[in-house]
Design brief:
Layout (H helix, E strand, L loop, with lengths): L3 E9 L2 H17 L3 E5 L13 E7 L2 H9 L1 H10 L3 E9 L2
Antiparallel strand pairs: 1-3, 1-4, 2-3
Helix pairs in contact: 1-3
Amino acid sequence: MPKGYWIAFVTVTDAEKYKGYQASAPAVFEKFGARFLARGGDAATLEGQGYARHVVIEFASKADALACYHSPEYQAARALRDGACDAEIAIVEGL
């Protein structure tokens, strides 16, 4: 079964408010067996809008990645970052 990936581009606009998300989201990712492949670090935007953070998270399957995103636990964490960042997130199936 192909793995699933979250691909996220994030720029934090309110660091203090974003701390709530940072405190609660890791437990949700752990619950769903997520493995971070990239989070922040040096990046070069070659096309499109640039973001401060680039995140790639691996899951056992696309279904697991979607289940994590739609879980009540993640949605509660997500609410903590509302208004604290600009983000684009896609969930894709691996090869």
